[in-house]
Design a protein that fits this description.
By secondary structure, the chain is of the alpha+beta class. Helices cover about 25% and strands about 25% of the residues. Strands 1, 2, 3, 4, 5, 6, 7 and 8 form an eight-stranded antiparallel sheet that branches. Helix 4 runs antiparallel to helix 6 and helix 4 (about 130-140) packs across helix 7 (about 170-175). The longest helix has 13 residues, at about 130-140. It binds a DNA duplex (13 and 13 nucleotides) through strand 3, strand 4, helix 5 and helix 7.
DNA sequence: GCAAAGATTTGCT
DNA sequence: GCAAATCTTTGCC
């Protein structure tokens, strides 16, 4: 076997690797991409170990015509920030919102389309304590926490239920240690330090598949105006305790 | 070069 | 329930 052939095989199962199981659906219409992301595993592998979450809430953003999308900027095309949105499906688009929180999107559709899905919440599956530690480090890095009472912040986070560790777009990135340095990363590459994997073929995943999908308008996009504020482009597993809140539909 | 606003979260009233 | 925190990006002068 040549080095190239070895590189095209999975490290652990030895089977030939075909196209990524999510690639086809992520390359389709953005609503289908959003539904494909529900139940998928978001996997973070770095110096603090392995962290895995089940995607339970996403929002679809449909390219430059969608006035709620960052792809609408750039009168004559793309801007420095939204450039990766115009790339192929499966690329990470990470941006800073409100000067404080990083948000993770998965680029979808075909190249040049610039549609993407915002990961709004995950249910922690593995690496709970590293997630909690990352949330704490993130909270303490903010001036507000330092000036008020870091002891209280610490105690609150220590008691925070597992399903609240990543129950919002800014909390997903905090729990998994995701920032803008990961912008442009290929989430469909099984060797990426941040990647997407299909729900495993197990009884646990069978339960996942029976969970109902709910939809609602997207949150926090009043600036876009109708019809964009009305489209039911937020998708979530209806029974999840990890949905974003308190503003979210719980 | 400058002003305005933002795909959020938290803590206090 | 409301407003502050915080800083990058964008559009316009």
């Amino acid at each position: 076997m040549s080095a190239v052939e070895r590189g095209s095989r999975r490290l652990n199962d030895g089977a030939a690797s075909g196209p990524h199981p999510l690639r086809s659906r992520l390359s389709g219409p953005v609503e289908e991409a959003a539904r494909a992301l529900l139940r998928a595993r978001l996997v973070r592998e770095d110096s603090s170990g392995l962290r895995v979450g089940r995607v339970v809430e996403v929002e679809a953003y449909d390219g430059p015509a969608d006035l709620a999308s960052h792809a609408r900027f750039g009168r004559h095309g793309r801007t420095a920030r939204n450039a990766v949105m115009f790339g192929p499906a499966g690329v990470a688009y990470v941006y800073l919102v409100y000067g404080m929180y990083d948000c993770l999107n998965v680029v979808s559709g075909i190249e040049g389309e610039a549609s993407a899905c915002l990961i709004r919440a995950i249910e922690p599956v593995h690496g709970i304590e590293p997630m909690r530690a990352a949330r704490l480090a993130n909270a303490l890095s903010r001036r507000r926490s330092r000036e008020t009472n870091s002891r209280l912040t610490e105690e609150r986070l220590a008691r925070l239920p597992v399903e609240r560790l990543a129950s919002g777009p800014g909390l997903v990135t905090a729990a998994l240690g995701i920032d803008r340095s990961l912008n442009g990363l290929d989430l469909l590459d099984p060797t990426s330090p941040l990647r997407l994997e299909p729900a495993p073929d197990s009884s646990e995943a069978a339960e996942d598949r029976s969970r109902e999908v709910g939809t609602s308008p997207r949150l926090g996009i009043d600036y876009a105006g109708p019809p964009w504020t009305e489209l039911p482009w937020r998708f979530y597993l209806a029974d999840s305790p990890a949905l974003s809140g308190p503003r979210g539909t719980r």
